[in-house]
Amino acid sequence: MREEKADVAADRLPIRSGLFYLCSHYDCRNDQAPGDETLPAIRQISAAAQKPVTAMAQPCTDAAPMPAPLPASLPAPLPPGMLPGQRIRARGAVQNPTGRYEGVQHEAVDDGWDIPEEDRLIQTTISDEPAKSAISRNSSPDLPFDRSVNPWRGCEHGCVYCYARPSHAYLNLSPGLDFETKLTAKPGIGAALDRELRSKSYKVAPMALGTNTDPWQPAEGARRLTREVLEVLSAFNHPLAITTRGTLIERDIDILVPMAAQGLVRVGISVTTLDAGLARRMEPRAPAPARRLQIIRRLSEAGIPVRLMLAPVIPGLTDHEIEPLLQAAHEAGATSASWISLRLPQEVAGLFRDWLERAEPGRAAKVMNRVREMHGGKDYDANFGKRMRGEGLWSRLIADRFRRAAAKLGLDAPQPPLRCDLFRVPFAKGDQLGLF
Question: Could you tell me where in the chain the CATH 3.80.30.30 domains are found?
């Protein structure tokens, strides 16, 4: 018996096609191996294996049926918050995660019906929220102002890194695509601002415009809400500090020039990169870098003081452009410059990481590692004194490079303070005292 078993082992080595036939000698249901009574049959198979095979071996009829083959390719999973058939074009975010204050989370699930989904391009929509008040106040030690006015909620520019995205969650909307596509306008904001400035308790100080979302985003062209605000501030001789990257500010030069002549206004133009391709991917509906430099030139030529805002500086992605950006802004007419590092509060961190992996996969890990080094190992440190520029080696290197380049170009001089002594309350419409 020992010799026979040895022969069996030797005979099995060259057998390949005969193995399927050998399966018929098993009890497939009990998974039992062939016993000694099957040895003659095995020898026959071994001998036959030395000859060419002319027929397919008989499969085991008692075995379980083979599973159906998988499809060649499975549909890609939908990004969070997206529905089948939805399509986006020129947007910073490609997902729409549920806002952090919502009680339920929405997720698309395949219902099994093999019906083509209707192709739907996500469009920008605008809802109206009549303004009950206009002035927002803050007490942050990181900010050079304590009041601001924002005619819009959300921003169609779609900058993927925008620190204002989490504010959309207060509206039970997503900081993702909703922030770029579901805007809120505040009709009547000019009248609301006029009422607040006329209050006897109001104490004048510089007003900030554009600190949350861009007041000159594309929808402003038709609605003219920001222009309402400018008209009111101009009538009151109220000091104003502006932040924008929108070309529509050129429309309102007629209001800004007289204010600038009295020392009542200054403008900050935000430029992130000179790379038009990178800007297109990162800020899909904002003006191109060259166009923003043209805004600086046109405002400067009109006599309006302009500051370049390197905001945000993204370590590992745009920080190598500090010196060229300062040089370009200087040549365009900017008189000062400032910088702020990338800020990733709340939902912005996940949106930015997702964008990096899609748009800059070769640099994604490097960028996030440097961001975390500047924020104590986290994506973002919200503590006062740290959130704007971070800390550590990379923060110091960026600050030193910026300081040296700005000083070389004369962009490090502080801007003159805005005048508050010219503030006056104009006569209201129909005011009888205006007759004297």
Answer: 125-409
List, for residues 223-276, the tens digit of each pLDDT value.
999 999 999 999 999 999 999 999 999 999 999 999 999 999 999 999 999 999
User: What average pLDDT is seen over the chain?
Assistant: 85
Top CATH class of 125-409 equals alpha beta
Q: SS3 letters for the chain?
A: CHHHHHHHHHHHCCCCCHHHHHHHHCECCCCECCCHHHHHHHHHHHHHHCCCCCCCCCCCCCCCCCCCCCCCCCCCCCCCCCCCCEECCCCCCCCCCCCCCCCCCCCCCCCCCCCCCCCEECCCEEEECCCCCCEEECCCCCCCCCEEECCEECCCCCCCCCCCHHHHHHHCCCCCHHHHHEEEECCCHHHHHHHHHHCCCCCCCCEEECCCCCCCCCCHHHHCHHHHHHHHHHHCCCCEEEEECCHHHHHHHHHHHHHHHCCCEEEEEEECCCCHHHHHHHCCCCCCHHHHHHHHHHHHHCCCCEEEEEEEECCCCCHHHHHHHHHHHHHHCCCEEEEEECCCCCCHHHHHHHHHHHHCCCCHHHHHHHHHHHCCCCCCCCCCCCCCCCCCHHHHHHHHHHHHHHHHHCCCCCCCCCCCCCCCCCCCCCCHHHHC
Q: Is the pLDDT of residue 334 over 80?
A: yes
